[in-house]
Request: fold
Amino acid sequence: MNLIDIGYSEFFGTEKIVPSVGRISFVNRQNYKVILEEGEFSAVLKGSLAYNIIDQEKYPVVGDWVKTTPIEEDKVLIVEIYPRKNKINRKVSGVKIEEQVLAANIDNVLICTSLNDDFSFSRIERYLFAFSSDVKPIIVLTKRDLEENYIDYLNQVKSRFLNVDVECVSIVDRSISTLSKYFVGGSTSVLVGSSGVGKSTLVNSLFGKELLKISDVNKKNDKGRHTTTFRQLIYIGEGKGCIVDTPGMRELSIWDSDAGDTSFSDIEELSHHCKFRDCTHTVETGCVVLEAVKEGKLDKERYKNYLKLIREEKFINSQKNYFTRREHNRRIKERCQRKKKKRFY
Ligand SMILES: Nc1nc2c(ncn2[C@@H]2O[C@H](COP(=O)(O)OP(=O)(O)OP(=O)(O)O)[C@@H](O)[C@H]2O)c(=O)[nH]1
Ligand SMILES: [Mg+2]
Ligand SMILES: [Zn+2]
Reply:
């Protein structure tokens, strides 16, 4: 396995490979897979390392670089996790206020949406809002063969997200080759989107063979059946880097965001001209954003979605310090109690 191709030198700043260093390619609870120079190995986390991890988001995720030592012929022990360069995350589903890291050390996030029932501007906005800090987002409109007017969709999306690359592809007409510019040696690209939009099909196409399971239904309005169940990092081939296929997302709750120049660049631009610097763009006089909505220059749905996402982010921010600190303290306490009990017996 050529680790340089999957981003070793971008991460460590050297081409000198250390044989014990590798990259997490798969996670299923406490079982991991790591790509080392010698190939892909099963892995587990060293007990003392796991013991010192208090917060969930610190556990290894797909894309993390780690140091290992061999324990069996085809198994290694993860002894160190290198600090992440970046990550994509969301709030865990449900009521818990906790971060879930989806992948680490990424260059491109391909936000996939198919040109059938899945297509929704507000979904694209949400994905951009959640995932575009520190990474390059690319909007990929899939299954263009199913939509006669795909050029209209492409133009609409392009004019709405001025600072983001937009591609429109299909596996039927081989147009996915336009994506090859993003898959270069050393790069890591992550595919995200709803179930059934064709993420795994795209990986298979790029790889040139049926590597991942895909759903066998191909109806126009197929909403997908959650065929992919785990995130997986795949080396596509020499000079193409690697790709992370992810299971279709049912919900995407914001954890943090810094997407001002991607999802809502036009609104951000307008807001500089509002009368008040801390304008909430809801009731203020002299609000340029409200004015644009009134004059029909800014789409009302888009404006509403903007406010919704900002509110969601504010809410999470107001909760997270309190909840994460409380959860952190609870886990430390639990651990101390366990230690005490052990000592007693
Ligand atoms: N017509 C058409 N069908 C496609 C295209 N790409 C994928 N499909 C079909 O869409 C269905 C779903 O594809 P998958 O690759 O399993 O979708 P996915 O996004 O990986 O779904 P999950 O793993 O559930 O998240 C399959 O039946 C594919 O054959 C395309 O470009 N055109
Ligand atoms: Mg899939
Ligand atoms: Zn305003």
The chain has a mean pLDDT of 90. The chain has eight helices and 13 strands. Helices lie at 8-12, 47-52, 121-131, 150-160, 199-207, 265-271, 288-294, 300-344. The first strand starts at residue 21 and ends at 28.
